[in-house]
Structures are given as C-alpha cells and as structure tokens.
Amino acid sequence: MSPPLLQVNDLKKHFPVKTGLFGRKSEFVYAVDGVSFEIARGETLSLVGESGCGKSTVGRAILRLFDITAGQVILDGQRIDDAHPSTMRQMRRRVQVVFQDPFSSLNPRMRVRDILAEPIRNFGLAKSAEDLEVRVTSLMDTVRLPREALNRRPHEFSGGQRQRIGIARALAAEPELIVCDEAVSALDVSVKAQIVNLLQDLQREFGLALLFISHDLAIVEHMTHRVAVMYLGKIVEVAPRREIFAAPRHPYTRALLSAVPLPEPGAQRNPIILKGDVPSPINPPRGCRFHTRCPLVFDRCRIEEPVLRAAGPEQLVACHLEEAAPATSG
Ligand code: SF4
User: Fold this and answer.
1) Beta bridge partners of 286
2) Which of 3, 58, 110, 150 could share a disulfide with 114, CB 3.0–4.6 Å?
3) H/E run at residue 61
C-alpha cells in the first residue's frame, strides 16, 4: 500500500481566551484536541459535525494559517507544521483551499484573468507569457466557464460561478490536495450538485485528494470515499461512506444521520433528538465529551474518555460500548 498523502497525528489547537485582570490569558478554547487521520492520493475524506466542532480549525491547521498547539501535519512524508519557510512555499502550492464564501475570498478589484494568473506567477509555474495565457484560459475550460469572462470581476458572476473561479484559482497552483471548507454550503441545492459534480470530475482528472469539510451529510453521502465525524474537538468515528451511512456505530453519528433525508419520496428515518446543547469548548466535559447528550450514557462515560478503536476493517469508533460489541466483518 502506498503511504498516505496527508497524515494528521494527534493535532491540537487551543486558542487562548483573554480573561481576568489585565486581559491575562487564563483559559483556552480547546477547538481541536487530539485529532488523527490520513488521506490517500485521489481520496475524498469528509470531516463532518455540527458548527463549532473544530472541523474548520483542522482545515486551517493543515493550511498552516496559524501555528498548532501540538501534534504533526505530514504531507507526503514531510512535516509541514514546523516546516522552514522555504519548504513551506512548495507545501503551500501542493495544498490549496476553496472557502465557503467565494465573494469574500476573491479580490473584488481584480479581473478573473489576474486572479487565476496570481498563483501561477507566485509559484513560478509558467515558462513564458504565452504559457501563462494558455494556463489561464484552460483553467476556465476546466471549470466550465466561458473564456470571455476572463476580463470580468467577481461581482459580475453568480454564487455558483464565483465558486468555480475559486476552484480554478485553487487548481492554478497544481495542487495534490484541496481543502474544501464548507465549499458548497452557501449555494442553492441545484448549484450545490453542479459544484460537487465538478469537484468529482476534477478529482478523477487530476488525481486530487479532497478534504471536504461540511455540516451537510446529504451532500457528503453522494461524493465522499470516507467520513470522519467530529464532536467538540475530537473525532468520534471514521469509516468508509458505505459503512457509516448503512451502519453508523457511534451514538452521535447515529443522531446526525437520523436527520439526513432519505432519497425515496415520503420515506423517513426515525429522528434521534439530542437533549441539550453542545457544551462549551472552553470547558469540555470530563470523560466522553458526548456524555452530557448521549442517550446511551452510563457511569463509566462520565469518568473515562473513550479512545478511537477498530470496530470493523476500516471503521474506528470512540465509544465504551464498542468494547463490548463484536467488530463487524465489513
Ligand atoms: Fe455515549 Fe458513553 Fe459511548 Fe460516550 S462512551 S458515546 S457517552 S455510550
């Protein structure tokens, strides 16, 4: 088996909160608190969970938009969490991002031509002015936008078209991994499907790996290879798409999936309504972080934190109940 493209080992990001006299930092938001996973070349891993669970922080840590508190982020065998700036430059080319709101991530004063040319120039990818022009125009073809639109500015496009520009800008750097941070969440349903189809086509064409960060499990179900479920800064379950949607093992995954509509008209899942709110990441519960809302909680859950353990050939679950349950054969 070839080594993974991306490895995230025990990643932690704790943000200091200014409290107390003279704004001293005496508390921390435990946004990501020990997260590990891998992504293979050409694979889509979806990171899902409710708003505030830490999934976007994981994405931003991989992009090294800030320094991490602890852990390792390894791209193709090389650590990027503490990489030297000269190494980091190449790493940045290899990992690109598509954000939720293309309008705020695209410079409104720049024409599309310049938006797409910028990463090509920055990373020295074009051999000549002609090569630059060829690359820019072919990016428009790749994301299925008309070449005539190269001279327009972002406000002249619809939301879906702007997201295509955001994808083209990411592709301009010839990346191996794209972090899609809620990349389709702000779009209408039909446009969402078009952008997801485009991402899948590009993945096949360029062998891209995708980290697809989303709270929308209905979209994830149609486009991912594997799913990692996050709750309050931790991964609670990881499994291939088929296993997780057919037989979720963690009580939180079951509750999340119970809210996903079934494709058959009129068909319904039995909704699992969780009591209470997600606890504060400043003061997460002791033991299992989900114990304050779990319908299956028992005494041990309030004291001891469950670890991710194998529940099937490719399925990992962090729940004490799994110790008693037989692992599935897949
Ligand atoms: Fe629920 Fe306990 Fe499992 Fe946590 S460890 S998910 S509280 S049963």
Assistant:
1) none
2) 110
3) helix 55-62
Helix and strand numbers (H, E) in the chain are 11, 12
Distance CA 25, CA 14 (A): 12
CA nearest 297: which of 250, 245, 248, 256? 250
**Per-residue model confidence as pLDDT tens digits over 106-158:** 899 999 999 999 999 999 999 999 999 999 999 999 999 999 999 999 999 99
Angle ∠(310,315,318) on CA atoms, nearest 5: 60
Closest CA to 208 of 181, 237, 173: 173
Spatial separation of the C-alpha atoms in residues 233 and 55, rounded to whole Å: 8
Angle at 66 between CA 60 and CA 71, to 5 degrees: 80
- Asked if residue 102 lies in contact with residue 163, where contact means CB atoms within 8 angstroms, the answer is yes
Q: Which residues does ligand 1 sit against, CB inside 6 Å?
A: 251, 288, 290-291, 294, 296-297, 301, 306, 319-321
Q: Indicate whether this model's pTM tops 0.90.
A: yes
Domains present along the chain, CATH in parentheses:
6-329 (3.40.50.300)
Q: Tell me if 177 sits within 8 A of 208, measured CB to CB.
A: yes
Distant-in-sequence, close-in-space partners of 195: CB < 8 Å, separation ≥ 6: 160, 163, 164, 167, 183, 184, 187
Which one-letter DSSP state was computed for residue 274?
P
Question: What is the C-alpha separation between 282 and 18, in angstroms, rounded?
Answer: 12
Residue listed under structure tokens 């004490």: 320
**Ligand 1, from 235, 291, 304: best to mutate by most atoms within 8 Å of Cβ?**
291
Instruction: Compute the distance between CA of residue 247 and CA of residue 262 in angstroms, rounded to an integer.
Output: 15
H-type alpha helices, 112-250: 112-122, 129-142, 159-172, 189-206, 217-223, 241-246
